[in-house]
Write a structure and sequence with these properties.
CATH architecture of the largest domain: 4-Layer Sandwich
Largest sheet: 11 strands, antiparallel
Oligomer: single chain
Number of helices: 8
Structural class: mainly beta
Helix content: 10-25%
Bound molecules: fe (ii) ion
CATH superfamily of the largest domain: Metallo-dependent phosphatases
Shape: globular
CATH topology of the largest domain: Purple Acid Phosphatase, chain A, domain 2
Radius of gyration: 28 Å
CATH class of the largest domain: Alpha Beta
């Protein structure tokens, strides 16, 4: 009778109660037979069991410590212990909907999939990108998700964003474990680690020196085993934290190296050791990870974020480094070429200015990784791809105990075929190796241009009417590289050169000291007086006559007169600082090209052949001619201005 009354009271409470009985639901792997759920809301317990609808155990939640402060909560944490290994459980929080979780596989077992993302944010700040990346992760049905820092940007956008993030990720976090590392945005003055340490119960938690006092101590970094892999997080670079981690992580690695159950060691944290994106690699972290890689043959992969882009390195001291900063926040781009280091460094195997998660599949003998194409936008994309498709894939083979000094055989019968003005297809015969070929490196005219896990590769960075010479070498898992193949040459057919605007900015006479370089719009108007600057890096003409050059602008707002274009006297302006007052004037000797009437929702092609002389920076200024304003998309949009140059 008493039970019956309590039950009725609970139902009444649910019907009349708050809009969320439980939200922000996620769980972490605490050990081989333990996991911990965290949520917010009035529900105070979690029930679970081995079959749907049949819950044989109930755990009452506790108030987590430290207590999150992003909202009034109430925040709950429930640790489930004594679970069966490698087992699917059904659960529900209070009277909420049923979910499932799976406990980690047996030690040494393999054949599981995890996802990686970093620099994530919320649907409130990144509505067209963040939810789409989370959905791609949910589609992949991973066992767990590694989130390598900069989780919510609550410090920049407000505390409501912290709660929103943990609701946004529920597309996967009610089924897949959420395994975080901390980024710089988790310990700012206006948001701090109480919001994060209080929302996770991490396995083998460790304390770092220098960790912020307000959230001190514990859970600065941690490690866990999942089947045949040991995952080790690293902390943020508080004073003394990395040198302390270096010593203690080495011991955790030594133990894994000696364990018959562990085939691979993977580290993950926010900061990169190698990066050619907006945040360069840390030389301190690089020396620590290089040293650990050189002394542990099972340590083959490091995962990080911080630079908002994707990048993969060749093995460095046996370790491949992946930057996966495409979790949803805007891409971080630098002027000229989008990348901080314009020329791709020799250690960089592949990079893409594109959002998207990384899929990691672990088998007994190799790790297979894929960068999944995310939603377009978040800045300028330098790869074209269909969301959900694979942009970059790679394989790391187990070293088999190390000591491999034998390079693979030299690849043979290389062919290079120009299949378009800006495309060359390569193919070759496979190499052999005593421990297995890990992939191939491709050289073009003596410089490294890419890598391939298979015996084909496509070069889409070539210019029309140009001859190229390629060579290929093979590499094994230990990083041994074969000699170079015989060369193969090809000449691309004639065709247009296509350039994307490197910089652009609107100029407003009425706001003479303001910079509009970050806007996705270029606004052209005669009243009020508004115009724009656009810059293109023209290359590959090589002195040939230009038969036609077309400026392509995507029009967002039509006008009876779309403006007129002239070259500027100087190209030494920067889109991040230029204003009406500092902008270069049109060159008085430049021809004047009218744009004519423009209509919204289409590309406008303007013949600017008279303005393009050859290779070098082309700087254009557009002036308004009509009080009916024209608006074009800028390089900060998904439809940036293009210059199409046709040479014979
Ligand atoms: Fe970030
Ligand atoms: Fe960051």
């Amino acid at each position: 009778m008493l039970l019956h009354r309590i039950h009725a009271a609970l139902i009444l409470l649910t019907l009349a109660g708050s809009t969320f009985a439980a939200d922000e639901i996620h769980w972490t792997i605490k050990g081989r037979t333990a996991i911990t759920f965290d949520w917010r809301g009035s529900e105070t317990s979690i029930s679970y069991g081995l079959s749907s609808g049949s819950y044989t155990a109930t755990v009452t939640a506790v108030t987590p410590s430290p207590l999150p402060f992003s909202s009034s909560g109430p925040f709950r944490e429930a640790r489930l212990t004594g679970l069966l290994e490698d087992t699917l459980y059904y659960y529900r929080i209070g009277t909420g909907p049923e979910g499932t979780f799976r406990t980690p596989p047996l030690p040494g077992a393999s054949g599981f999939t995890a996802y990686l993302e970093a620099d994530i944010g919320t649907s409130l700040n990144y509505p067209s990108t963040m939810p789409a990346v989370q959905q791609l992760i949910a589609n992949g049905a991973p066992a767990f998700v590694l989130a390598a820092g900069d989780l919510t940007y609550g410090n920049a956008h407000g505390q409501t964003r912290v709660d929103q993030h943990f609701n946004d990720v529920m597309v996967w976090s009610t089924r897949a474990a959420y395994m975080p590392a901390w980024g710089n945005h988790e310990w700012e003055p206006s948001d701090d680690l109480r919001n994060y340490k209080g929302r996770f119960d991490l396995p083998n938690p460790q304390t770092s020196p220098g960790s912020p006092a307000i959230s001190c101590c514990g859970e600065d970094w941690y490690w866990f085993d999942y089947g045949n892999v040991r995952f080790i997080a690293y902390p943020e670079p508080w004073s003394g934290a990395w040198s302390d981690w270096s010593t203690r992580a080495r011991a955790v690695m030594d133990d894994a190296q000696a364990s018959a159950d562990i085939d691979f060691i993977v580290t993950f944290g926010h900061r990169p050791a190698y990066s050619s994106g907006h945040h360069p690699g840390s030389s301190t972290l690089k020396s620590i990870l290089d040293s650990l890689g050189a002394t542990h043959t099972k340590y083959v992969l490091n995962l990080n974020g911080h630079s908002h882009n994707y990048e993969r390195t060749f093995p460095q001291s046996g370790v491949v480094h992946i930057t996966a900063g495409g979790g949803g926040a805007s891409l971080e781009q630098d002027t000229q070429c989008l990348w901080l280091t314009c020329t791709q460094p020799s250690w960089s195997a592949f990079r893409a200015m594109r959002l998207g998660p990384v899929r990691l599949h672990f088998t007994a003998s190799y790790i297979e990784g894929s960068f999944i194409c995310g939603p377009p936008g978040g800045g300028t994309n330098d790869v074209a791809c269909t969301p959900g498709s694979v942009v970059d894939s790679w394989v790391i083979f187990a070293s088999g105990g190390g000591g491999d000094k034998e390079p693979p055989s030299i690849p043979t019968r290389l062919t290079a075929t120009a299949t378009g003005p800006q495309r060359v297809d390569l193919a070759w015969q496979p190499s052999t190796d005593d421990t297995g070929v890990n992939g191939y490196q491709i050289q073009r005219d003596g410089s490294s241009v890419g890598t391939s896990p298979t015996t084909t590769w496509t070069d889409t960075t070539v210019a029309p009417s140009t001859t190229y010479e390629y060579r290929v070498s093979a590499m094994d898992a230990a990083g041994n590289v074969s000699g170079l193949s015989d060369p193969a040459s090809t000449t691309t057919p004639a065709g247009p050169l296509v350039f994307i605007a490197a910089e652009d900015a609107t100029l407003k006479q009425g706001s003479p000291a303001r910079n509009f370089g970050a806007s996705p719009r270029l606004e052209i108007d005669a009243s009020p007086v508004e115009g724009a600057l656009i810059k293109f890096p023209v290359a590959g003409v090589n002195g040939r006559p230009i038969s036609r050059a077309v400026l392509r602008l995507y029009c967002n707002n039509g006008s009876d007169r779309g403006g007129e274009i002239q070259k500027t006297a100087t190209s030494s302006w920067a889109q991040g600082s230029v204003t009406w007052a500092t902008a270069p004037a049109a060159d008085p000797s430049s021809p004047v090209v009218p744009i004519g009437p423009v209509s919204s929702g289409r590309w406008i092609d303007v013949d600017v052949t008279s303005l393009v002389g050859g290779d070098g920076t082309l700087s254009l200024r557009i002036r308004g001619l009509s009080g009916d304003d024209a608006v074009y998309r800028s390089r900060e949009s998904s439809l940036p201005p293009q210059l199409v140059v046709t040479v014979p």
